[in-house]
Amino acid sequence: MQLSDRIQAFVQLGNWLSSESGKQEQQEWAEIAYRKNGWFIPELVVKSLQELAQHFLTLDHLTAWADRYPALAQERTPRKIGLILAGNIPAVGFHDILCVLIAGHHAYVKPSSQDEILIRALLKKLVEFEPRLANYLTYTELMKEIDAIIATGSDNSARHFHYYFAHKPHLIRKNRTSVAVLSGNETSEELLGLGRDILTYYGLGCRNVSKVYVPNEYDFTPFFEAIASLETVSNNHKYVHNYDYNRSIYLVNRVPFLDNGFLSVTASDTLVSPISVLFYERYGTVAEVEAKLAEQSEKIQCVVGTTIPASIPFGQTQSPALWDYADGVDTLQFLIELS
After folding, report:
1. Which chain positions lie within coiled-coil regions (predicted)?
2. Are 3-174 and 177-305 equal in CATH topology?
3. Between helices 20-36 and 42-55, what is the axis angle to 10°?
4. Domain 177-305 carries which CATH code?
5. Is the pTM of the predicted complex or chain greater than 0.70?
6. Closest CA to 312 of 206, 220, 227, 234
């Protein structure tokens, strides 16, 4: 298959996802996925699929992405690429599959048990639009005959992956999270965007903000007022269970915290907060924050705000571009170089 054929297949998938008939079928997928995984409420499943359609699967986006890699247009011998996918948010592993197929390789896919419904549904629809891609897709539980591996998991599973696949070309991803740096001059709209960065997908993704750095005299009242409309997270019983549990732990242990009825905010030097909790750390100078972020760069996926250079704008963490790679490692370049 030519690169243009592969691109066109994904464009067709994107067009279908955006169509009325496509949205109706996606609602059915969403209901099934929710029965499998209580975090995947239908509204968020449909949101994630529409993000794919709008930010990944358009001719303009795919062409602009491919144009960054002139070698993509060259003929290559397909390699067998093992994909051990994450399942923390809906369809999160789709980008890795997209990279493998666009590079002209064969994807050996092991979906997460938490997200198997959506991955299989998307790939089935893709093959309907381009049947030749069926020859480049295999589901597998074992990774015995692969040429390279891309695996995403916890820090513990990453150690296992490094040991088991040490003799293969590999990309092994560990736990990451995202942070925001506030100046204290943010508008209500920016603070609402930050709230979405924290709470979309209930904070389960590596692009969710789990910690904020704030000036020494920062007052959280405007932040709580700005995010009041996000209280709908409390409609999910799994989220409420986490909120009640973590709040109780802080009360019992007399840990100081702020609270608005659905999000607790407490001081911590660490990066990763529990679900329903936002950590904060006060700073005196921006240089102090930059030094701390540099020390922890291998644990940080995104930096949000306007204070630190190259930060992501508030409210944009869950809308990555095709070239916003996990862990900052160029997945597509890795796949191209295998040839």
Report:
1. none
2. no
3. 130
4. 3.40.309.10
5. yes
6. 206
